[in-house]
Design brief:
about 170 residues, 5-stranded parallel beta sheet, about 10% strand
């Protein structure tokens, strides 16, 4: 189903490192709509996400995230959600009336993408193993909300974005 407010609203979900931001920017450009990264919006208003997690906990962050998602969906365009947004039932409910693309990626391909800080749930000795655990916990939720699935493991991000934009245009 499409949103009555903006027929080109498209939501990107998937695990950390799947390319939601980099693909999302390209898809928005191809469709001629705004790009909204809900994690970046939350950080701009409330401070760094790792700090929110450590000082206020994951539940507080998910509440901020749900509010950011609702606002972004009202505005329309291409909306990239954080990897854990689908863990919140109310956020999943917000997605039910929108086209949702699930970006998936293999653990092998994601290994290089998740190095560096800024991912509090991946802290520890083996971030790829932690990523696998989190992905397995969330996989069914991504599938539940998805209208379509695209794998970002091996193809250039621009090609993936072009395919998603073409798919979205067909959904009108």
């Amino acid at each position: 189903m499409t949103s009555a407010a903006d027929p080109l609203t498209l939501v990107l979900v998937g695990p950390m490192g799947a390319g939601k931001t980099s693909v999302g920017r390209r898809v928005a450009r191809a469709l001629g709509v705004a790009f909204i990264d809900t994690d970046k919006r939350i950080a701009a208003v409330h401070g760094p996400i790792p700090v929110i997690f450590s000082e206020h906990g994951e539940a507080h962050f998910r509440a901020l995230e749900r509010e950011a998602v609702a606002t972004a969906l009202d505005e329309g365009g291409v909306v990239s959600l954080g990897g854990g947004a689908v863990t919140d039932a109310a956020t999943r409910e917000l997605l039910r009336t929108h086209q949702v693309v699930y970006l998936t990626v293999s653990a092998e391909a994601v290994a290089d993408r998740i190095t560096g800080g800024g991912r509090p749930l991946l802290a520890g000795d083996d971030p790829v193993q932690r990523w696998r655990q989190i992905f397995e916990q969330r996989r069914g939720l991504y599938e539940e909300v998805a209208s379509a699935t695209f794998d970002t493991s091996r193809r250039p991000m621009q090609r993936i974005a072009d395919d998603i934009a073409a798919w979205r245009r067909e959904q009108r």
